[in-house]
Model the fold of this input.
Amino acid sequence: MEGKLELPEGVVLKVEDLVVKFYTYSGVVHAVSKVSFYVKEGETVALVGETGCGKSVTTRALTRLIESPGRIEEGRVLFRRRNGEVVDLLKVDFETLRQIRGNEIAYIFQDPTSALDPLYTIGFHIHETIEAHVGKIPKKETLRRGIELLRQVLIPSPEVRVKNYPHEMSGGMRQRSVIAISLSNNPRLLIADEPTTNLDVTVQAQILDLLEKLQEQYKMGMILITHNLGIVAEVADRVYVMYAGKIVEEGKTEQIFYNPQHPYTKLLLRAVPDPTKKIEKLESIPGVIPSLINPPPGCRFTDRCPYAMDKCRREEPPLIEVEPGHKATCWLLVKRG
Done:
């Protein structure tokens, strides 16, 4: 029998060696391979990387939101609940998991249109989310809460908008409504998948500022999935760089931006336009992500890496600590050491 689960002080989530595979007619897709990371209370952790690197699959697996033909094969997801109890989300019974989803762990999904039911008002969505975890509650009470939440996410005339259906709102308003719904139960952990995609720059900055204030108020941890490295530089405390289902580099935000170690991280940063310089042609990373049905045996970035060696094709590089809290997987670091 497994003993009492524990987490280091201040850590709200710890993922250990998570493996997710999809069993398709074409073969087994190794979508997430031995991914490990942690999130502290009040901390923002960013998962960055190209589309198809496994970021969204990783975060959906945390609360077992992987549908067939997907399967969570290995790993542990330790989560500290509001009452202080530490549970493994991959092993708890479904009723416990249901109490945690949308309540203690909330999601902001990438596409607000598919996240909202067109047959119900925004106010009903908020009422339903609160009632699912609190129990029967008067609609007047959740209506007041809904208006307050919509006001917090900067939706004008929230008293009117709370009674609107999704099709009566713009894409940006729908995105902000999804954010309001996810915050309705003051979650311990917020998983934000491209939360500012449909927002203009001004509102984007205001929403990020709001999330930061809510983190301070409720000691809420946040996992931020984004392609926008400018947002990462502004709001993230630590960064995990993912490539082809693996984490290739991790560290504090300043370490990743000012002292990148993995070739993939360096190329990602070079692809970001610099507004202070006149650039005629943006840099891009040559090639494509390898097939995850038959991933290469060595480093998965080998075919696109300008520094690749024969050893890179044969053997997977170990995770090397470059400086305290800053790690990367690259044979160049081993050679240097």
Remarks:
- The longest strand covers residues 11-24.
- Residues 264 and 301 are 7 Å apart (CA to CA).
- The mean pLDDT is 91.
